[in-house]
Design a protein that fits this description.
Length: 148
Amino acid sequence: MLRYSTDVDPDKTAKAYGYELHCSLKDSKNLAYAIRGMKTEDAKKYLEEIIIMKRPLRAVFHNGKRAHQKGIGPGSYPKKAARYLLKTVENAANNAEYKGFDTDNMKIAHISAYNGRIIKGIMPRAHGRATDKNRITTNIEIILEEVE
């Protein structure tokens, strides 16, 4: 059973969990910070604009040596992380619809991104040596609540 980082009333909320996603943790944290508190339709539109590179994402965390984008400062277009996050937001909206909530009236009450499992790998090197080539995964959890 998956554990969420907050306890909420199941009669008023809908949840979704992206488990071991193959995307950047740093980009996922910045995306989660950007869409926290948004309505679901606004969040979907925002993520789609990032995927088609129409709007850059402002880097709040891990912004050292990031190129500056017009009007926002340090930022980027994290397409892969935005695709995974969009899928998770849509999943949460579908869960809300299944529970009987009005999907146009839902907002993101809680969202977090953190480390998932590390998938071990090695890269062969010269003279019989090897170095680690690990794949880091990301877990994303979203909780939607209905706005009154």
